Structure formats: structure tokens, C-alpha cells
Amino acid sequence: MTLTAWFVFFLIVQAIHFLGTWKLYVKAGRKAxxxxxxxxxxxxxxxxxxxPWWWVILLFVPVINVIMLPVIWVETIRSxxxxxxxxxxxxxxxxxxxxxxxxxxxxxxxxxxxxLKPRTAAGEWISSVLFAVVAATLVxxxxxxxxxxxxxxxxxxxxxxDFLFVSKFHYGxxxxxxxxxxxxxxxxxxxxxxxxYLSDIQYPFFRxxxxxxVKRNDIVVFSWPVDTVNAFKPYGDxxxxxxxxxxxxxxVKRCVGIPGDSLAVIDGYVHINGKRTQLPDRxxxxxxxxxxxxxxxxxxxxLYERYRIKPGEVGFDQTLNRPYVFLTxxxxxxxxxxxxxxxxxxxxQPKGVKDPAIFPNNGKVNxxxxxxxAIYIPEAGKTVAMNxxxxxxxxxxxxxxxGSEMGIDNTLSVNGTxxxxxxxxxxxxxxxxxxxxxxxxxxxxxxxxxxxxxVPANHIVGKPVFIWMSWDSFGKGFNKIRWERLFTTVGGxxxxxxxxxxxxxxxxxxxxxxxxxxRKKANS
Length: 524
What we know:
The chain is α+β, with helices and mostly antiparallel strands. The chain has helices spanning about 5-25, 40-50, 55-60, 65-80, 85-95, 100-105, 120-140, 300-305, 330-335, 390-400, 450, 500-524, and strands at about 145-150, 160-165, 180, 190, 195, 195-200, 220-225, 250-255, 260-265, 270, 275, 285-295, 315, 320-330, 340-345, 370-375, 385, 410-415, 420, 425, 430, 435-440, 455, 460-470, 490. Strands 1, 2, 7, 8, 22, 23, 24 and 25 form an eight-stranded antiparallel β-sheet that branches. Strands 11-10-9-16 form a four-stranded antiparallel β-sheet, with no helix packed on it. It has a four-stranded antiparallel β-sheet with strand order 13-14-12-15.
């Protein structure tokens, strides 16, 4: 929906509210016109139902407002004596329109000093649950979101089974675009395995200002730009369909290129503006190594403990007729001295070898996962020449990221050697937003920007800051928990430091303080 459409929708909602409540405002000792003034009518309504004024703010917070509206409906009719379970169900089932019946057909009276405490245990439980859902949704949507590492694309910086807290406020939280969505889940409702949102009504894109920009080599969580696959694909639905921006699948990669950079991959290593990039000391790049197997004399568990080779990760290259594994340079130096391993070599696709699965996916460039580019990473406000080469690189940006996803019908085409935008010849294009280049540290086991291209700024979700749990599915007993990774920071230099004991001490202190307050209150 456009801003104009939202404004019209807002006015319609205000009209519906006025027509359904003006008599109730009068019965509460207010003026009828007060029910018609946008925002002010909500402030007055909070006074009528004896709730704090800041509830009005919650009515304008995306996702939270969907939860708060039924609460306001119920509180409104209860302020006029309609307290029964039937009344509560009717006002919720009719999406608030039961208030019209109360407003026009029933001889109700305003209860000025209404007892706000729920009259039943069930009512108190529901109130507690609603408060918890609202609070958790606020934190989840605008401050901190839990995230699980599902694949090994960032091994060994982040491990499969790491449970992260992702900060939304570092880069600035995106306000949700889907107006109607199930709280606290992404795109799929657990258990029932159904879509968690309605895509028909959407808010315009907006990002709350952050206090930090995405820096080169930051680990970033972002919405997968080319995601058009249903999130419950593993359950049998493999149809391609439209997904709102905020409901696209979340990926986590390292941002190796920022707006304005010239990026190339040479023999597997990223080069920025002609120089090989220097990664943080916690980053471990992995490559594919092939070898001759003369009878490895270690068990599966030993391979994992010594070289981080997971069970089932020893593959076989049919072309070279040799087995292969994913290793860091450090582990490769250890593995080559292992009994039964001979002729260990890092596998590199030579420069000039064409891989049609590599961006821009047109089969016309001689690029592959190890030798790629150079390409320019677009920066907002910067202009590039438009020719046949740039047409392939920036077509999706212009048609989708700065076109259909922004409500603009852009079509880029070619007539001979002339590039056309919406049928009109162009020789240059100015970008409307920043773009980033994301790659996994596991260079040969990562689906990243080399496969699908640029990540727009509006797809950035947040910054992983903390590992609160790490689960090793290949461990045994208590060793399934990677104790040394618990409560460690994602960023920083040097060996990760666990803050588990500090957290436990803080938790114990809180319990002691809470019990002290309860005893003091009971004795007073």
C-alpha cells in the first residue's frame, strides 16, 4: 500500500471508530466530537477505560497494534458493564463491531471507578499472557532476536548449533511491513506449519535510525534477497510465490564488501579495491582439499576432534577420482601429516573457467567461486554507466530492489546495444540505496552473493552479538554442549571469552534481592 492508500485507510478507521463509539464517549462525560479527532480520541479513550496514556503509542507500533486492538475492544465494553464471557467473545469475533450494538442498542451506563483486576483466575492468566506477548514481541521485533546457525557456511567463526542473540538496534530495526502477522514467529506457524502472515495489507518500509553502519567484515543477518520459496518447503510445498520483505528467509554471512567497494575474488581470497582483504583474527577461512586416501587410521570422532571434519563430510570428487574435505589452512597442515593421507591439495577453480551458476547467472562471464569479478558494489546516490555489461549486473537491482519492492513498475531491456528503462533509452543509472556483498567463511560450502548477487540495505536485519548456547550434535553426553562457547561475544579479537559465570552470579544476586524485597514487604 502507498502512503496515500494508508492515509485513506487511516481516515476510514477513524470514521468507523467515531460512528461506533461517540455515544459511549458522551455517556462517559466526554464530548461527541472527541471521538472524531485522530490520536486525541485514543488518548481520551484511555482515560475512559482507565488505562495509561502510553497505550496509545502501542496502537501505532506495527504488530503490537494487532495484539492491542482486541484488548482495547474488551476494555471498552467492560467500562460499560459488559463483563460476561459471551460479551468478550462477541467483541473479538466481530472484530470490535459488537461495540456498535453496545453503543446504539443497549441502555448501558459508564462505570467510572471500574476495578481493573480480572474477576477470574482465567482472566488474570489471559491478562498476564497478553502482557508477556506484547513485551516479548517488542523486544523480538525492535531490540533483540534469537537466531540459530543452521549451516556451516561461517565455520569455524560460527558453528552449526550456535544459538545467537541478534541486535536489531545496532544497524537500526526495521519496522514490520506485514500488518497482520502471528507474533513471535517468522514466516511459518510451528506445529500447524502454515503461513504466519497476510500479505495483502502492508506498511511502507521504514527503518529506525541505528547507531552503527555495516562495516566491512561484520557478520550480518539479512533477508535472503532472492527468496520466493515457501518457508515450509521441507514439508512438501515447493511452489514459488511472492514473499514480503520482512518475511523472507534470514541468512547470516560475513559482509566482505560495502557500498562503493570494487570487489574481486582471486584464488578464493577476497580483494577490495585491488588489495587482499584482512579478516579479523577470529575468522577462519575454509577451502576444499582433495587427497589420496591410503587408509585413514582415525575414527570418525577423532577426525572431528582433531580437524573438525564432521561425520559424513568426507566427499568424493568424481572428476579427480579423489576424496575431499573442508579444512582451514591450520587444520590442513595437521591433516596432511595424518597416517593414510597423501598428496593433500587445495582445490581451486582456475581463472577463466565459466560457472553458469555464478552471478550474474547469464553464462556470459568467465567467473566461478574462486575467481570472480571485479564488480562495483553500488552506493546510494552514485551513478554508473549503463551498457550491456552493467545491464546484467544491475538488472535485478533496478527491476526488483528499486522497482517492484518499492511499488515501482521498472522494466529493463536491451535493443541492440542500447539499454532501455521502461522503454526509454538510458546511458546511466543512479542508485537509490546502498548494497552489500555477503560471503561465507567456508568458501566452497556457502550459498552467498557469488550465487545471487547484491544484498540491498533494506534487507539488513541485524548484527549477531552474543552466543547464549552452543549445541554440538556430534558430541556425546554433556559434551554435546560446547561449554566454552556459552555466553561469548561474536565480535572482538583474541580467543572468545565466556561470561557464563558472570551471568550466573548476576542471576543468583537477582533471586536473593527479589526474596529480600518480598520478605521485607511481608513484614511491613
